[in-house]
Specification:
Distance between the termini: 48 Å
Number of strands: 13
Pfam families: DUF6733
CATH class: Mainly Beta
Strand order of the largest sheet: 1-3-4-5-6-7-8-9-10-11-12-13
Shape: globular
Strand content: over 45%
Organism: Splendidivirga corallicola
Order of helices and strands: HEEEEEEEEEEEEE
Largest sheet: 12 strands, antiparallel, barrel
InterPro entries: DUF6733
Protein name: Transporter
CATH superfamily: monomeric porin ompg
Length: 242
Protein backbone atom coordinates (compact mmCIF):
# COMPACT_ATOMS: atom_id res chain seq x y z
CA UNK A 1 0.00 0.00 0.00
CA UNK A 2 2.82 2.40 0.91
CA UNK A 3 4.48 1.68 -2.45
CA UNK A 4 1.26 2.50 -4.28
CA UNK A 5 0.89 5.79 -2.37
CA UNK A 6 4.55 6.66 -3.08
CA UNK A 7 4.07 5.94 -6.79
CA UNK A 8 0.94 8.13 -6.86
CA UNK A 9 2.76 11.00 -5.14
CA UNK A 10 5.76 10.76 -7.49
CA UNK A 11 3.46 10.59 -10.50
CA UNK A 12 1.49 13.63 -9.31
CA UNK A 13 4.69 15.61 -8.74
CA UNK A 14 5.93 14.65 -12.19
CA UNK A 15 2.68 15.79 -13.81
CA UNK A 16 2.77 19.04 -11.81
CA UNK A 17 6.39 19.72 -12.81
CA UNK A 18 5.63 18.93 -16.45
CA UNK A 19 2.60 21.25 -16.39
CA UNK A 20 4.72 24.05 -14.91
CA UNK A 21 7.41 23.58 -17.55
CA UNK A 22 4.78 23.62 -20.31
CA UNK A 23 3.22 26.80 -18.89
CA UNK A 24 6.64 28.50 -18.67
CA UNK A 25 7.36 27.42 -22.23
CA UNK A 26 4.07 28.91 -23.44
CA UNK A 27 4.83 32.16 -21.61
CA UNK A 28 8.21 32.37 -23.32
CA UNK A 29 6.54 31.79 -26.70
CA UNK A 30 4.26 34.82 -26.27
CA UNK A 31 5.45 38.36 -25.52
CA UNK A 32 3.67 41.68 -25.06
CA UNK A 33 4.94 45.26 -24.98
CA UNK A 34 3.75 48.85 -25.14
CA UNK A 35 5.56 51.72 -26.82
CA UNK A 36 4.51 55.23 -25.83
CA UNK A 37 5.43 57.77 -28.52
CA UNK A 38 4.91 61.52 -28.54
CA UNK A 39 6.17 63.91 -31.18
CA UNK A 40 5.68 67.55 -32.12
CA UNK A 41 3.30 66.87 -35.04
CA UNK A 42 1.28 63.70 -34.43
CA UNK A 43 1.15 64.13 -30.65
CA UNK A 44 0.60 61.12 -28.39
CA UNK A 45 0.29 57.68 -30.03
CA UNK A 46 0.57 54.62 -27.75
CA UNK A 47 1.32 51.33 -29.48
CA UNK A 48 0.46 47.80 -28.29
CA UNK A 49 2.72 45.01 -29.57
CA UNK A 50 2.50 41.22 -29.31
CA UNK A 51 4.47 38.28 -30.71
CA UNK A 52 3.73 34.58 -30.86
CA UNK A 53 6.59 32.20 -31.58
CA UNK A 54 5.88 29.95 -34.56
CA UNK A 55 9.27 28.27 -34.64
CA UNK A 56 12.85 29.14 -33.89
CA UNK A 57 13.72 32.56 -35.32
CA UNK A 58 10.16 33.16 -36.63
CA UNK A 59 7.34 35.02 -34.87
CA UNK A 60 3.77 35.97 -35.67
CA UNK A 61 3.40 39.66 -34.75
CA UNK A 62 0.45 41.90 -33.94
CA UNK A 63 0.19 45.64 -33.32
CA UNK A 64 -2.32 48.40 -32.64
CA UNK A 65 -1.60 52.14 -32.81
CA UNK A 66 -4.03 54.40 -30.99
CA UNK A 67 -3.63 57.76 -32.75
CA UNK A 68 -4.96 60.41 -30.36
CA UNK A 69 -4.38 63.58 -32.39
CA UNK A 70 -7.85 65.15 -32.89
CA UNK A 71 -6.93 66.32 -36.40
CA UNK A 72 -6.83 62.63 -37.36
CA UNK A 73 -10.54 62.39 -36.46
CA UNK A 74 -13.30 64.80 -35.56
CA UNK A 75 -11.95 68.02 -34.09
CA UNK A 76 -13.81 69.10 -30.98
CA UNK A 77 -15.23 65.90 -29.54
CA UNK A 78 -12.28 63.59 -30.20
CA UNK A 79 -14.40 61.08 -32.10
CA UNK A 80 -13.53 59.03 -35.20
CA UNK A 81 -9.87 58.91 -34.18
CA UNK A 82 -7.58 56.90 -36.41
CA UNK A 83 -6.99 53.33 -35.24
CA UNK A 84 -4.32 51.21 -36.89
CA UNK A 85 -4.14 47.43 -36.45
CA UNK A 86 -1.90 44.91 -38.15
CA UNK A 87 -0.44 41.42 -38.36
CA UNK A 88 2.92 40.30 -39.71
CA UNK A 89 5.93 38.01 -39.44
CA UNK A 90 9.12 38.64 -37.47
CA UNK A 91 12.41 37.12 -38.64
CA UNK A 92 15.47 36.81 -36.38
CA UNK A 93 18.66 36.80 -38.45
CA UNK A 94 22.44 37.01 -38.02
CA UNK A 95 22.51 35.19 -34.67
CA UNK A 96 19.55 37.26 -33.43
CA UNK A 97 21.38 40.54 -34.03
CA UNK A 98 18.98 41.52 -36.84
CA UNK A 99 15.18 41.49 -36.55
CA UNK A 100 13.00 42.16 -39.63
CA UNK A 101 9.23 42.52 -39.33
CA UNK A 102 7.12 43.00 -42.51
CA UNK A 103 3.49 43.71 -41.59
CA UNK A 104 0.15 44.50 -43.19
CA UNK A 105 -1.79 47.11 -41.25
CA UNK A 106 -5.38 48.28 -41.62
CA UNK A 107 -6.51 51.83 -40.84
CA UNK A 108 -9.93 52.55 -39.36
CA UNK A 109 -11.42 56.04 -39.08
CA UNK A 110 -11.80 58.95 -41.51
CA UNK A 111 -8.25 60.25 -41.83
CA UNK A 112 -7.55 58.69 -45.25
CA UNK A 113 -11.09 58.33 -46.61
CA UNK A 114 -11.90 62.03 -46.06
CA UNK A 115 -15.48 61.59 -44.90
CA UNK A 116 -17.52 62.89 -42.00
CA UNK A 117 -17.60 59.63 -40.06
CA UNK A 118 -15.62 56.50 -39.24
CA UNK A 119 -15.18 53.81 -41.88
CA UNK A 120 -13.84 50.37 -41.03
CA UNK A 121 -10.79 49.47 -43.14
CA UNK A 122 -10.56 52.94 -44.69
CA UNK A 123 -6.97 52.24 -45.65
CA UNK A 124 -4.21 49.65 -45.99
CA UNK A 125 -0.84 50.19 -44.32
CA UNK A 126 1.88 47.86 -45.63
CA UNK A 127 4.95 48.46 -43.51
CA UNK A 128 8.30 47.02 -42.52
CA UNK A 129 10.34 47.47 -39.35
CA UNK A 130 13.95 46.39 -38.86
CA UNK A 131 16.37 46.68 -35.98
CA UNK A 132 20.02 45.65 -35.63
CA UNK A 133 21.99 45.39 -32.39
CA UNK A 134 25.51 44.30 -31.55
CA UNK A 135 27.89 45.18 -28.71
CA UNK A 136 28.62 48.72 -29.90
CA UNK A 137 26.21 49.61 -32.73
CA UNK A 138 22.41 49.89 -33.04
CA UNK A 139 20.22 50.67 -36.02
CA UNK A 140 16.46 51.06 -36.40
CA UNK A 141 14.39 51.77 -39.50
CA UNK A 142 10.70 51.85 -40.38
CA UNK A 143 8.80 52.34 -43.63
CA UNK A 144 5.00 52.50 -44.03
CA UNK A 145 2.61 53.50 -46.79
CA UNK A 146 -0.90 54.66 -45.87
CA UNK A 147 -3.17 53.98 -48.87
CA UNK A 148 -6.84 54.99 -48.85
CA UNK A 149 -9.11 52.08 -49.83
CA UNK A 150 -12.54 53.63 -49.19
CA UNK A 151 -14.03 56.96 -50.19
CA UNK A 152 -15.95 58.67 -47.41
CA UNK A 153 -15.88 62.14 -48.96
CA UNK A 154 -14.63 64.05 -51.98
CA UNK A 155 -10.99 64.01 -50.87
CA UNK A 156 -8.95 60.90 -50.11
CA UNK A 157 -5.27 60.93 -49.19
CA UNK A 158 -2.23 58.63 -49.22
CA UNK A 159 0.85 59.12 -47.03
CA UNK A 160 4.39 57.78 -46.70
CA UNK A 161 6.12 57.54 -43.31
CA UNK A 162 9.68 56.43 -42.69
CA UNK A 163 12.47 56.90 -40.18
CA UNK A 164 16.11 55.85 -39.79
CA UNK A 165 18.03 55.89 -36.50
CA UNK A 166 21.66 54.66 -36.44
CA UNK A 167 23.55 54.95 -33.16
CA UNK A 168 26.62 54.09 -31.14
CA UNK A 169 26.43 52.44 -27.71
CA UNK A 170 28.55 54.47 -25.32
CA UNK A 171 28.00 51.73 -22.73
CA UNK A 172 25.31 49.18 -21.84
CA UNK A 173 22.95 51.89 -20.62
CA UNK A 174 23.53 54.87 -22.90
CA UNK A 175 23.47 55.42 -26.68
CA UNK A 176 23.86 58.40 -29.01
CA UNK A 177 22.89 58.54 -32.65
CA UNK A 178 21.44 60.32 -35.66
CA UNK A 179 17.75 60.56 -36.46
CA UNK A 180 15.88 61.10 -39.74
CA UNK A 181 12.12 60.94 -40.23
CA UNK A 182 9.84 61.92 -43.10
CA UNK A 183 6.05 62.09 -43.38
CA UNK A 184 4.76 63.00 -46.83
CA UNK A 185 1.41 63.39 -48.55
CA UNK A 186 1.99 61.36 -51.71
CA UNK A 187 -1.49 61.36 -53.30
CA UNK A 188 -4.66 63.45 -52.92
CA UNK A 189 -7.85 63.53 -54.98
CA UNK A 190 -8.22 67.29 -54.59
CA UNK A 191 -6.92 68.77 -57.91
CA UNK A 192 -6.09 72.06 -56.20
CA UNK A 193 -3.65 70.47 -53.73
CA UNK A 194 -0.28 69.01 -54.74
CA UNK A 195 1.54 66.33 -52.75
CA UNK A 196 4.01 67.76 -50.22
CA UNK A 197 6.18 66.83 -47.24
CA UNK A 198 4.29 67.31 -43.99
CA UNK A 199 7.71 67.24 -42.34
CA UNK A 200 11.26 66.02 -42.96
CA UNK A 201 13.21 65.82 -39.74
CA UNK A 202 16.95 65.56 -39.27
CA UNK A 203 18.63 65.54 -35.88
CA UNK A 204 20.07 63.30 -33.21
CA UNK A 205 18.94 61.15 -30.33
CA UNK A 206 19.97 60.10 -26.86
CA UNK A 207 18.79 56.76 -25.50
CA UNK A 208 18.85 55.29 -22.01
CA UNK A 209 18.42 51.51 -21.78
CA UNK A 210 17.27 49.52 -18.76
CA UNK A 211 16.87 45.86 -17.83
CA UNK A 212 14.58 43.51 -19.81
CA UNK A 213 14.66 45.61 -22.97
CA UNK A 214 13.14 48.80 -21.55
CA UNK A 215 14.38 52.09 -22.96
CA UNK A 216 13.68 55.82 -23.29
CA UNK A 217 14.81 57.59 -26.48
CA UNK A 218 14.57 61.34 -27.08
CA UNK A 219 15.20 62.72 -30.57
CA UNK A 220 15.42 66.41 -31.48
CA UNK A 221 16.46 68.43 -34.51
CA UNK A 222 15.33 70.61 -37.39
CA UNK A 223 12.68 70.37 -40.09
CA UNK A 224 14.21 70.35 -43.59
CA UNK A 225 10.88 70.80 -45.35
CA UNK A 226 10.07 74.41 -46.28
CA UNK A 227 6.38 73.52 -46.67
CA UNK A 228 6.27 71.41 -43.54
CA UNK A 229 4.97 71.94 -40.02
CA UNK A 230 7.39 73.72 -37.65
CA UNK A 231 11.06 74.58 -37.87
CA UNK A 232 12.14 72.20 -35.08
CA UNK A 233 10.97 68.81 -33.86
CA UNK A 234 11.04 66.52 -30.85
CA UNK A 235 10.07 62.90 -30.43
CA UNK A 236 10.18 60.71 -27.36
CA UNK A 237 9.72 56.94 -27.31
CA UNK A 238 9.27 54.89 -24.14
CA UNK A 239 9.38 51.11 -24.72
CA UNK A 240 8.12 48.79 -21.95
CA UNK A 241 7.97 45.00 -22.34
CA UNK A 242 5.14 43.53 -20.23
Amino acid sequence: MKKIITIIIISSLAHYTFAQEEEEKKEKQTTFAVNFIHNSVAGFSPIFLATKELKENLNLTFYSIFWTNPTFGTIGNGGDLLLETGIGLGFKLLDNKLYVNPTLGIAHGKFLSGGDQTLIAEGLVPNIFAIYNNDWFEFETYLAYYAATRKGGPTTKDFLLNWIAPGIKVNQSFSLGGYYEKFALTKITDPEVDPFDVYEWLGGYAKVSFDEGKFIRLAMGTNLSEDGIGDDFYKISVFLPL
